[in-house]
Input
Amino acid sequence: MQEEINALHAQGTWDLVPLPHAKNLVGCKWIYRIKKNADGSIARHKARFVAKGFSQEEGVDYNETFSPVVKPTTVQLALALATQFHWPLRQLDVKNAFLHGILQ
Amino acid sequence: MAQPQGFTSNLYPDFVCRLRKSLYGLKQAPHAWNERFTSFLPSLGFQASLVDPSLFVQYSSHGTVILLLYVDDILPIGSHSSLLTSVIDALTQEFYMKDLGPLTYFLGLQVSSSSSGLFVSQTNYIKELLDRVDLQNLKPCATPCLPYHHLLKDDGKPYSHPQQYRSIVGALQYLTFTRPDIAFSVNQACQFMHNPIEYYVVAVKRILRFSRVLLIMAFIFSLALLIYKYTVMLIELVIPMIVILVITQLWVIPQKSISFFKIKIKKMK
Output
């Protein structure tokens, strides 16, 4: 939980302000999850801090929600190219990806 | 946004949080992340593809790097490992990332490489799908559908869980990535997503029963079959891509499944 709060602070996710007049206040809560290893033993307790997005109104609180999805043919092409030319393939995983997004 | 429980400010308990960065759960979070990442890529010399917005290519005199983005999963492929490493370093400096090393698992695809090519399978994906619908013990079946059998539009009672039908068929559709053998049957089932009827479920179950037989069937991206000189230049063209794929892909059917089919054929005789 502290780890998550630290990540949020490190990102400068928010600053504290008095509630502006006639604005929608979005709720928030903590989600707790137990991450398990492949053998079923407990790996770690994870806390994720989330906003209650369901109270947001389109056009008022947000406009765009679109995020593209990769096409299977593109993946196949990339793999075919990698094989053909002996290109190395790597894999990256972004930690807390959604916390990187900048809001207007 | 309200202040987080357990971490309310002592000085200003009545204040609220004005968000500068997105949070999980916000409607605009996926878009904000995508925007942030894709606007950083051009600074590394990447160009977004016109064909697929999640494909980025960096051309230079040193070589080419291809980058596939699926939300927070990133698959970089480079013509030289030094070039690839420099891209990964630049990305890890900008974002908090973990380098998972050589590709082994991407979007439910299990990938293993050998000297002869890449071996791609969705064994775990099928297993998880069967677990999810609680049908691990389905009787295996030799074909994905009955011959000369069409699914008709108004043929019986509507199915009581259309969401479940859609979810299974959607999952099967993704399975066609490594299993073109079920593509036809899945396409048939897809045509009734809006209004599934009870007996289509039987057809879908049949696809699942068939998928189970060839559980570890995989695609091989093989080297032996193809020398195609201009593939990199053709990256923006869709048609040559299909040609390349047709030539580079080979099926591998495990010995055990072949004997299963032989027994079936004998019985039919």
